[in-house]
């Protein structure tokens, strides 16, 4: 396909972005994926009753009692860097986590930090945070997403965590 040829976008992308066309089929494929993702998200209930009509996870504030569990999920310096970025050094310890949660999870806080609890077992299975919260513009950065419990991976828990953090 030549670079100057315009390819149409999906109706959803056109309605939500104003784009009428793009110059490459790759972007057309992206527009289709955006539309599919948007449809999925719009059809999910706000309380995340995703599997069998039951809520699988709850987000609860991450607190010092949860430190040991999170530390146990971080086996290597490479994993810590990938998960936590340069904010932490290996081995992860309580002192670093105390600094991490300082000022978080309060009214008006710029950072909300959660443990992820499996509703059926009440077991902590993961971690997620929202940072750089801008309440005026209703935006935040999702970060430090971890399905720490290996047996829970591959079941859509990460997707639920991200969706749940948006509410």
TrEMBL record:
Entry's Gene Ontology molecular function annotations: acyltransferase activity, transferring groups other than amino-acyl groups
Domain N-acetyltransferase: 58-162
Top-level taxon of the source organism: Bacteria
Alphabetized Pfam families for the sequence: Acetyltransf_3 (PF13302)
Protein name: N-acetyltransferase domain-containing protein
Annotated source species: Caldalkalibacillus thermarum (strain TA2.A1)
Phylogenetic lineage: Bacteria, Bacillati, Bacillota, Bacilli, Bacillales
């Amino acid at each position: 396909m030549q670079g100057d040829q315009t390819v149409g976008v999906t109706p959803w992308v056109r309605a939500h972005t104003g784009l009428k066309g793009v110059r490459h089929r790759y972007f057309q494929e992206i527009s289709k994926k955006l539309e599919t993702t948007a449809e999925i998200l719009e059809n999910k209930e706000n309380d995340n009753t995703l599997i069998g009509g039951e809520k699988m996870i709850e987000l609860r504030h991450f607190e010092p009692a949860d430190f040991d569990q999170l530390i146990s999920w971080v086996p290597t310096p490479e994993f810590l860097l990938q998960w936590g970025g340069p904010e932490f050094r290996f081995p992860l310890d309580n002192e670093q986590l105390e600094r991490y949660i300082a000022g978080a999870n309060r009214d008006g806080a710029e950072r909300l930090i959660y443990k992820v609890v499996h509703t059926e077992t009440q077991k902590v299975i993961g971690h997620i945070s929202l940072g750089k919260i801008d309440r005026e513009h209703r935006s935040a950065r999702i970060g430090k997403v971890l399905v720490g419990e290996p047996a829970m991976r591959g079941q859509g828990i990460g997707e639920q965590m991200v969706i749940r953090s948006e509410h």
